[in-house]
Design a protein that fits this description.
520 residues; alpha+beta; seven-stranded mixed β-sheet
Amino acid sequence: MSTQDYVVGIDIGTGSARAGVFDRAGNMLAEAKMPIALNRPQEHHVEQSSTDIWRSICYSVRTAVTNAGIAPESVSGVSVSATCSLVLLNKDDQPLCLSDGDEKWDIIVWMDHRSTAEAAECTATGAKPLANLGGVMSPEMEMPKLMWLKRNRPDLYQQIGYAGDLGDWVGFKCTGSRERSVCMLACKWTFDPRPGQGWDRDFLRQISMEDVIVRAGLPEQALPVGATLGPLTEEAADDLGLTTNCIFAVGMIDAYAGALGTLGRSLTDAPARRVAVIAGTSTCHIAAQPERQEVPGVWGPYPGALCDGYVANEGGQSISGALLDHLVALFSAGKEFGDNPHDALSTLLLERLENGNDPAPRTHVLPDFIGNRSPYADPDIRGVIAGLSLDDPKESFIKVYWAAATALVYGTKLIIDRMNANGYAIDTLHLSGGHNRSPLLRKLYADGTGCRVVLSQAPEPVLLGAAVAALGPQSDGDLLSIAGQLTPGEDILLPDPASKDMHEGRYRVFMELYSLDTKA
């Protein structure tokens, strides 16, 4: 076994927990993952279990370290990226269960939209924190979720002893520290990390949540990403198969880890021209500049959420890869494309594109099946499939899949256009996530947006971003310096000029679909 110095990056997605072992140059030696369960007790309610997630984390870390062939003592640091799901513990730091079942369902998942009405009330206040949220509160943020709980489950709300983002809870579980990451607090809790700002208590009074700071155990300051949170406790070290000499570094939301793992090495070079697109089940678009930029309908500006010295803006699509999965399940013809339907459809549609023609010129999709996160910030918009005929069912499915894939990319273009009208000049996408593994989607991101696409050669950029944070305590928290020295290289994909007219025409129709009344 090697005794070299290594770090572990943990990533908790919607469907699994993963761990990767990295050397200091950013090379991944091994990865492991384990599924995590979802509970959907009713429409718009989505829950998870911190007990189940911790079990998956421990399995993944232990397995990755074993597969890497390294001694546990050689792991000097660990950090985490995670979805912005809300973990609820009681006053004894035990899971506070939302629903009955075999698991202790104590997490309101990021995609849970039970608090749409509460989010609208927050927006209606017009309070100062909204200037850091693109002007609109989302039901995917934590204050509306806790408002819902206080109103609809006051019995549970009164029992809260800790409420935190999933990534901050992992830090608490590993070290016992109740400190929080600036990434989580700024992006999801309405905390303003600028000097002299912090919590806006007038806003909390307006929404009748003035007690939430004490009840949830929220701090008055936030820690930078990559700062030392503390050494692993004996219990955590034993669970993870590591040692108490291993330092846990402050983590971040999963999309920001993907941005750090791809965009971090280039951020100091013309930052206004770059955006990280982290595209998987959902898609996040993260850009950052030294100066504060307010972009209507786009979350942020968030100082320090990506790294010190930069202020981030974040656009998003609540479902993207999940939409393509849904369409495969929705159409009976989806079963005809085998165990890897997305790969098969990617190959088929790329072949059809070779003649230069639109594979489905009259079929179009509005992809906002559960609302629009950016730039319209409207959770009530619903999806549209337009242009269906009495085609062969398999052919109809192929056309709809193509239309949906292009629509997801046009949603990215729409967000870029909004950002470029408000202080950015984006012409380069840094793509990571599941979409980066699809030859069709990679091509569409270049052709459909007209941007240069940078493809990281790192096999798992989100895990790499978490590993960069884990290296932070050893480098005085200079995350961009760490990212700039990483070994994994990049490939460049340029837009095909021959496809420009086709995509411009489809984009015009895409924009026209928003004029329809698709409200739920």
